[in-house]
Amino acid sequence: MTPNSKALLRVVTGHGILPRPSWIERILTMFDVRRTRLDLDRLTDDQLRDIGLTREDVEAEMNRPLWDVPAHWRRR
What we know:
Elements: H1 3-12, H2 23-41, H3 45-50, H4 55-62, H5 71-74
Helix pairs in contact: 2-4
């Protein structure tokens, strides 16, 4: 299993999005968030249009801090 697929597995199973109780797990979540944002930044304009986003939306997301995630990600 590649590192990207391991990260995706954590996200799909809820272990990368849902809050984690320990500090190390929170750090892992930040790495997942960063990786996801980088993947989003690598999409072409056509791919972004397919999912209803613009390049400006992606730039705004890329400029957010790692800890700035939706509230439902932080609640248990």
